[in-house]
């Protein structure tokens, strides 16, 4: 344990030392002779930022196009016609699909939100960062160019003074050699020797002055160079390093905001998926089967068995009621006679014209037709039809169903010539009865829907009447607030509407 603990401490100290050494490493110290490469790197880093900006813009376009495609897809498959809407709202599998379409709309909105967040947060920030960094980089480059020109100028002056010093030194050397030769030449006069010495002296003095000038330029250049490499250049490189650090931090922040733009909508996307899952889990075949029953159930009873007709014994009643060999006549009776809702929830079978083989038919040629009425009792009672030879015997080509239907019309009366009863109420025409073309069960369903709608509307009107009544009381106490008569007229109109709704409810009930 002690060995492992000491090993951990050693590793920790090494990491701390490494981090400190990395922190102490500066571009101004480490890259003093690589300014051009540093400047190029700074430019490349900014170009990368601009490239990333283009990436973000293209990313937004992808999100927008995806959202647009999702919305177009949902719009294409969303039911538009009312019959389609009715179908899609009845079954669990269609409801699950509609829920998917609805949630896809929300998903499309979330993708639009991603694009909007990227534009508002990431793209704007990186544009500002690139602009500021370019300005700062240009400032650093201009400062570097300025101090570099100063250094180059001092170096040029130093080189010029060196060239001058070299020329003067060479001239002084030649003058000295000439004087030495003249001093050794015994043929030269004293005046010529003095002239050679004066020339040597003047050249030497000029050389000394040139050397002094060169020395001063060397000192000035060294000072400028020292200032350049020890202070000015490190400062500029440090500014570029700080600029790169700022660019890196800003880019990091942009990366994080880019990720957050996606992460923020994930809970909403998950909620959309959860809602799809919830609706899908409610998909139930039994529920759909029950919905199909409710949608298409007619409420008719199964047709009775057909009895064989024996013309030899004069079974005219059976022939009258079974004139059609295919059994289609019985459907006429089922549709034409008014429906009666049995207390047990089934439609009574007494509204069916029985064949001679049924329990309600007579064996002596008398057919009994049972007709039951609506809630108001407009049609009620039992009619007996005597089977006569004229009724029973028909020509082979005669309309089989027409005779039976006309017989029923004779018994119950024509729908277009029905007279009022003694109680003052007129029997409505069967063809004018609401939803008369629908089977009994579907009519019952429609009636119940109408009753529910009327009751809902009645409740709204009653609440509106209560509000207007209170308002009328206020206007009675304070006429300046409004005209009482206007409110009274509105109440009268609502009362009329309420009476109509109550009448409709009773009618459908």
Automatic annotation (TrEMBL):
Record's keyword terms, sorted: Coiled coil
The answer to whether the entry has keyword Cell inner membrane is no
Domain F-BAR: residue ranges: 25-288
Region Disordered, residue ranges: 412-439
Q: Look up keyword Coiled coil and say if it applies.
A: yes
Q: Where is the composition biased (Low complexity)?
A: 422-432
Q: Which residues form a coiled coil?
A: 101-199
Q: Name one Pfam family in it.
A: FCH
**Protein name (database record):** F-BAR domain-containing protein
Q: Which organism is it from?
A: Rotaria socialis
């Amino acid at each position: 344990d002690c060995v492992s603990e000491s090993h951990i401490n050693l590793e920790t100290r090494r990491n701390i030392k490494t981090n400190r050494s990395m922190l102490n490493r500066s571009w101004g110290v480490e890259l003093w002779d690589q300014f051009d490469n540093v400047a190029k790197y700074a430019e490349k880093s900014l170009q990368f930022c601009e490239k990333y900006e283009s990436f973000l813009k293209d990313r937004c376009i992808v999100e927008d196009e995806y959202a647009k495609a999702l919305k177009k897809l949902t719009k294409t498959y969303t039911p538009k016609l009312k019959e389609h809407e009715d179908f899609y709202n009845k079954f669990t599998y269609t409801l699950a699909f509609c829920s998917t379409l609805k949630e896809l709309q929300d998903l499309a909105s979330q993708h639009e939100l991603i694009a909007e967040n990227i534009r508002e947060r990431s793209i704007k920030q990186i544009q500002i960062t690139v602009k500021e960094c370019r300005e700062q980089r240009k400032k650093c480059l201009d400062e570097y160019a300025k101090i570099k020109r100063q250094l180059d100028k001092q170096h040029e002056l130093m080189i010029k003074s060196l060239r001058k010093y070299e020329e003067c030194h060479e001239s002084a050397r030649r003058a000295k050699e000439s004087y030495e030769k003249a001093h050794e030449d015994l043929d030269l006069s004293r005046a010529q020797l003095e002239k050679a010495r004066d020339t040597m002296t003047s050249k030497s003095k000029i050389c000394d002055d040139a050397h002094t000038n060169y020395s001063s330029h060397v000192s000035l250049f060294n000072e400028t160079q020292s200032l350049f490499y020890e202070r000015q250049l490190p400062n500029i490189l440090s500014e570029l390093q700080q600029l790169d650090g700022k660019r890196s931090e800003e880019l990091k922040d942009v990366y994080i905001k880019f990720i957050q733009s996606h992460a923020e909508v994930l809970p909403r996307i998950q909620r959309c998926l959860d809602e799809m899952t919830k609706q899908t889990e409610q998909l139930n075949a039994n529920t759909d089967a029950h919905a199909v029953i409710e949608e298409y159930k007619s409420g008719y009873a199964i047709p009775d068995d057909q009895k064989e007709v024996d013309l030899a014994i004069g079974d005219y009643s059976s022939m009258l009621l079974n004139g059609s060999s295919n059994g289609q006549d019985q459907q006429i009776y089922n549709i034409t006679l008014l429906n009666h809702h049995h207390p047990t929830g089934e439609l009574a079978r007494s509204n069916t014209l029985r064949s001679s083989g049924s329990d309600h038919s007579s064996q002596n040629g008398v057919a009994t037709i049972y007709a039951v009425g609506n809630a108001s009792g407009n049609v009620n009672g039992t009619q007996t039809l005597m089977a006569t030879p004229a009724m029973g015997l028909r020509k082979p080509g005669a309309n089989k169903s027409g005779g039976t239907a006309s017989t029923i019309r004779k018994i119950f009366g024509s729908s277009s010539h029905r007279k009022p009863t003694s109680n003052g109420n007129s029997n409505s025409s069967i063809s004018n009865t609401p939803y008369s073309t629908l089977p009994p069960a579907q009519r019952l369903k429609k009636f119940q829907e109408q009753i529910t709608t009327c009751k809902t509307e009645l409740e709204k009107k009653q609440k509106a009447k209560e509000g207007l009544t209170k308002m009328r009381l206020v206007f009675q106490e304070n006429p300046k607030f409004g005209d009482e008569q206007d409110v009274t007229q509105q109440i009268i109109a609502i009362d009329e509407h309420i009476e109509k709704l109550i009448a409709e409810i009773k009618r459908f009930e």
